[in-house]
Amino acid sequence: MKILVPVKRVIDYNVKPRVKSDGSGVDLANVKMSMNPFDEISVEEAIRLKEAGKAEEIIAVSVGPQKAQETLRTALAMGADRAILVMTDDEVEPLAVAKILAKIVAEEAPQLVITGKQAIDDDSNQTGQMLAALLGWGQGTFANEVEIDGDSISVKREIDGGLQTVKLGLPAVVTTDLRLNEPRYASLPNIMKAKKKPMDEKTPADYDVDIAPRLTTITVAEPPVRQAGEKVEDVDALVAKLKAVGAI
Amino acid sequence: MKTLVLVEHDNMNMKDATLAVVTAASQLGEVHALVIGSGCASVGEQAAKVAGVATVHVADDVALANQLAENAAPLIASLMESHDAFLAPATTTGKNIAPRVAALLDVMQISDILSVESEDTFTRPIYAGNAIATVKSSDAKKVITVRGTAFDKAATEGGSASIDTVGGAADAGLSTFVSEEIAKSERPELTSAKIIVSGGRALGSSEKFEEVITPLADKLGAGIGASRAAVDAGYVPNDYQVGQTGKIVAPEVYIAIGISGAIQHLAGMKDSKIIVAINKDEDAPIFQVADIGLVADLFDAVPELTGKV
Q: Is B185 contained in some domain?
């Protein structure tokens, strides 16, 4: 079967985002960008399923600017077979991304879509669930473990307070959580090979999807800063202080 | 405006996460609560007592027993014909269901709101809380998830809402519930605990975590949390994790032990009322947000603290 893996190019998770002084957004000029960490986990999981003989082909997809090519090349270097870049310089909201992905699913007919539970830039946590709704498929969100068994998939999900296992008929959408796996690094020979793997370039118009935003960002501001308090000398002083503020 | 609030529950008891959503919804208009489940009549009665709730809709159907999104979302989407805004808590249940509802309604969801500025404008955290965006929605219907720590909890007594039943639930045939492993504990849940004692990688092992953190938490009647580093190192299960990728908490007192204070951890606890940090490294970033800091070896300081509180 085919697996479709949507990936997003985002600010590197080690970089502290800085809010622009005019309040229009976060400054991304000359900032290191990487694949969304949850999407790396998705690519890794797809590769593991292929290695286990459960899948034949992995298609990585990204909706974003020209430079999202780099993100797709990373997916190809990790082990995806080919890539589709849906190119746009506009910011595309999860609903519109889900609509584009639904069209790609209609063309490619994958049995499984694996994507990160959220992107670390807008922190929406929506695309996978929306795609499942548009396709009328089951959804296994926040996956901690997945197991394909014939024409169904068991997904162990991270939920508040513990874990929940659901069984979904295929085709289905899975969104990944942190503990699903540890993504591999691409080796140098694989990075070289990835350059020769096919990458289609498309635009949202090719899929006839209206990407006009439904949400308008009015301002982006720094969060309120918390002031450091005081340091105490020893445990006795800590206990006294805790009692003084009524904490204990 | 008529709002529909998804009640968080386990078919027996309403969860506290619901109460902050009621507060957020009441800032938009009339509050209708929705209980979806199976054998969940008592939850409907609890929801009817919440101050500010006008009506409770109870959808009681075996297909809704585990609140699977595939079965819940079509029902909620149909109820949205007579409501203007759907609000769910930003819990794993709410985050699973709400986007599915939004897509069925062709609405762009507003995730994890921190405040209601007007009936179409909200603030929400982006970049792990390193920035706060004010966004305005142009959709006719709103689908919203609410960050529980950002709103006061509505009172659990004082309301006398009418209760009606909602039919039309069906099994979409896409998913089945298999099992659940919920950590059983006498401890308060992280998201509702008044005091949280949280441990980091400096604990060094799961044995030490248990030996150092647990007695202090027991003494204080506190919930136990952990940094992502401690979870990744395997000291504690993931549901202990506080941070951007774990739980967002805001207790009265948060005691961070051996936690350096990575951005992603701070994103999950910086709204706590009082932050206490115990760390050997006096330059640890956690001290920049701590109200009370103690530079000390945690293996000496924490047992001593446990003995003295």
A: no
Closest by CA position to B298, among listed B249, B258, B243, B256: B258
Contacts of A218 in chain B (CB under 8 A): 121, 134-136
Tens-place pLDDT, residues B290-305: 999 999 999 999 999 9
Q: Between residues 124 and 163 of chain A, which touch chain B (CB distance below 8 Å)?
A: 124-134, 136-142, 144, 154, 157-163
Per the domain annotation, does A7 fall within a domain?
yes
Tens of pLDDT, residue by residue over B12-51, are 999 999 999 999 999 999 999 999 999 999 999 999 999 9
Give the pLDDT confidence of A173-187 residue by residue, as tens digits: 999 998 899 999 999
Counting one residue from chain A and one from chain B, the pairs whose CB atoms sit within 8 A come to 247
Q: What is the 3-state secondary structure (H, E, C) of chain B?
A: CEEEEECCECCCCECCHHHHHHHHHHCCCEEEEEEEECCCHHHHHHHHCCCCEEEEEEEECHHHCCCCHHHHHHHHHHHHHHCCEEEEECCHHHHHHHHHHHHHHCCCCEEEECEEEECCEEEEEEHHHCEEEEEEECCCCEEEEECHHHCCCCCCCCCCCEEEECCCCCCCCCEEEEEEEECCCCCCCCCCCCEEEEECHHHCCHHHHHHHHHHHHHHHCCEEEECHHHHHCCCCCHHHEECCCCECCCCCEEEEECCCCCHHHHHHHCCCCEEEEEECCCCCHHHHCCCEEEECCHHHHHHHHHHHC
Judged by a CB distance cut-off of 8 A, whether residue B173 touches chain A is: yes
In a domain, B213, yes or no: yes
> What's the pLDDT at B23?
98
Domain that holds residue A164: 2-219
Please check whether residue B186 touches A, CB under 8 A: no
Q: Check which CATH number belongs to the domain holding B64 and give it.
A: 3.40.50.620
* Domain identity same for B243 and B118: no
pLDDT in tens, B151-164: 999 999 999 999 99
- Tell me the residue range of the domain where B225 lies: 195-308
CATH of the domain at A156: 3.40.50.620
β-bridge partners, A86: A63, A202
Distance between alpha carbon B218 and the CA centroid of its chain, in Å? 23
Q: How far apart are CA A198 and CA B283, in angstroms?
A: 49
Contact B292 A124 (CB under 8 A): no
Residues 6+ apart with CB under 8 A from A115: A5, A6, A7, A38, A39, A42, A127, A128, A131, A173, A174, A175, A176
User: B62 and B114: one domain?
Assistant: yes
B131 touches chain A (CB under 8 A): yes
Rounded to two decimals, the pTM is: 0.92
Question: Is residue A246 a part of any domain in this protein?
Answer: no
Residue B209 lies in a domain: yes
Provide ipTM, 2 decimals: 0.95
Angle in degrees, CA B166, B167, B171, rounded to 5: 125
